[in-house]
Amino acid sequence: MPPTRISQKSPYVTRAAAGAAASALVLAVGASTALAALAQDAAGVVGGERLGRPDVQVAPLSGAPALPPELTGRSWLVADAATGEVLAARNAHQPMPPASTLKMLFADTVLPKFDRAQEHQVTPAELANLGAGSSLVGVKENLPYRVEDLWRGVFLSSGNDAVHVLAHMNGGLQQTVTEMQARARTLQANDTRVLSPDGYDMDGQVSSAYDLTLFARAGLRNADFRSYCATRTAHFPGGLDKLTGQRTSFDIANTDRLLGKYPGLIGVKNGYTTNAGATFTGAAERGGRTLLVTVMHPEAQGKVYDEAASLLDWGFAAAGKVQPVGQLVADTAAPAAGAATGPAAGPATGAATGQAATAAEAAADSQLPPWSRPPVLSGGGSGLAPAVWTAAVLGSALTALAAARTVARRRTAPVPAPAVAGSPAGRGAAAYRGGATALGGATAVGGRGRRHLARRARAALRSARTRRSRAASGPL
After folding, report:
1. Among 4-8, 89-93, 136-140, which stretch is predicted with the lowest mean pLDDT?
2. How far is CA 63 from the centre of its chain?
3. CB count, 10 Å around CB of 134?
4. Phi/psi class of residue 393: alpha, beta or left (left: φ > 0; alpha: ψ in -120 to 50)?
5. How far apart (Å, rounded) are the C-alpha atoms in residues 295 and 77?
6. Coil, strand or helix: which one is 309?
7. Is 90 exposed, middle or buried (0-12, 13-18, 19+ CB in 10 A)?
8. Cα three-residue angle 133-139-145, rounded to 5 degrees
9. Whole-prediction pTM value?
10. What are residue 75's DSSP bridge partners?
């Protein structure tokens, strides 16, 4: 049966019918969104079907610039950090060794747990079993280090020794790997398999350009993460001077070759291993727009920076001139209170400190770019994951529609309308007696009896609004 339409000529379309139509529209939009999400899951490609294809994906509009001509990366992606729109990609979901770019996931998982000023005495066991040829910042055993110094060692020098110390503070290497894998799942980074927290080559340890971009986007929402990855040089604690007994220090520099050279670059992380080749994920801001780029395994190690820079240039020039070919999906885990900068403690006291959101933390959050700020949660609650939020909205709309139907039944007397069964007038009267219309339709009321009925319906609506208004204003 074709849906009944609202007659534009009739002056007697009730407000109840219009409200029902609006509710129906909300339901229709929500349902289409849910169906799209289900279709994506059925296709098995996170972020959209085109991102699962092996060749270059781009959808230029009129006036769009051409992609850089020499892109040798086996996998790459450029996306808008705010909207999550993927502007172009190649082999976005191809699992490949990630090298030290996996440290972004390590930081996103562990960094919120420890106060940056906390000191930790490094033990020999924490520096054991580092992979041969690992990049090191120079952590010494039996000496204390502040957490913030260890994180500078991770981000600037890509120090596997600093990673191992922080992982042991977090409960051990295996505990940290397990937590990193769980964090990858909440980010919907399903291409990633974590076997070591530092990204060292291990059989079966893989990620993808898509997943690494998700890690960068999530990490940059944390003010400390953002600060560390943007730091170009720092002093790092050394050993003890044999003559004076005083603690020495030395300078370390960020190994990201684009930092300080590419205009607007924020960070984030580079890497290189024998199996992975060169990998790089970067973020840059220009004209109020922040772009993310990931390049994995180009033909030559040095090309990873050139190709990342050329993709960023292209992305800024192409913004608004290309259709997205995919989407960076949302983090399904609600952020903890104060997680953006919050002084969190170790496993034993993390819950207690996580609840303390200080004015300093709020001020630090305000310094984050708008797209990377955590959602505002009322009462310090945990918030709702996107899927739960969508379900809640749909449920609320359905409840409101049902309530409107009930009110209409109770406030409207069932007046039979003399109409031929199956005729348009007959369908309209039947729908009106039901109190609301079918999705996408409404009733057209005509005739003296039905005009009287319409007036009664409008009076009932005005009465209901008056009662709600009085209830909202409270006792005088």
Report:
1. 4-8
2. 30
3. 16
4. alpha
5. 7
6. helix
7. buried
8. 155
9. 0.66
10. 296
Q: Is the pLDDT of residue 113 over 70?
A: yes
| φ/ψ (deg, to 5) at 38 | -65, -40
Query: What is the rounded distance in angstroms from the CA atom of residue 309 to the CA atom of residue 312?
Result: 5
Tokens standing for residue 437: 């219309």
Sequence-separated (6 or more) residues with CB below 8 Å from residue 62: 321
Q: Choose among 415, 406, 402: nearest CA to 448.
A: 415
- CA–CA separation, 168 and 141 (whole Å): 13
Question: Residue range 104-122: average pLDDT?
Answer: 98
Cα 122 to Cα 162, 324, 400: the distances in Å are 10, 48, 60
Report, as residue numbers or ranges, the catalytic residues.
100, 103, 158
Beta carbons within 8 Å of 46's beta carbon, 6+ residues apart:
40, 93, 188, 190, 210, 329
Burial class (CB in 10 A: 0-12, 13-18, 19+), 79: buried
Three-state DSSP at 423 gives coil
- Locate 455 and state its tokens: 């007036």
Q: Which residues contact 75 (CB under 8 A, 6 or more apart)?
A: 90, 91, 92, 94, 96, 208, 209, 294, 295, 296, 297
Pairing mode, strands 277-286 and 322-323: unpaired
What are the structure tokens assigned to 222, written together? 């944390």
By CB atoms closer than 10 A (0-12, 13-18, 19+), residue 457 is: buried
How far apart are the C-alpha atoms of 104 and 217, rounded to whole Å?
Answer: 10
Contact 53, 273 (CB under 8 A): no
Residue type, 416: P
* Residue 166 · residue 154 · CB < 8 Å: yes
- Tokens 């403690």: give the residue: 345
Q: Please provide residue 381's backbone torsions phi and psi, each rounded to the nearest 5 degrees.
A: -75, 175
pLDDT at 382: 36
Q: What would the two tokens of residue 237 be?
A: 């604690």
226-275 pLDDT, tens digit per residue, is 999 999 999 999 999 999 999 999 999 999 999 999 999 999 999 999 99
Instruction: Tell me the C-alpha distance between 2 and 195, whole Å.
Output: 57
Rounded alpha-carbon distances, angstroms, from residue 362 to 117, 151, 318, 320, 366:
18, 22, 35, 33, 6
**Digit-coded pLDDT (tens) for 270-316:** 999 999 999 999 999 999 999 999 999 999 999 999 999 999 999 99
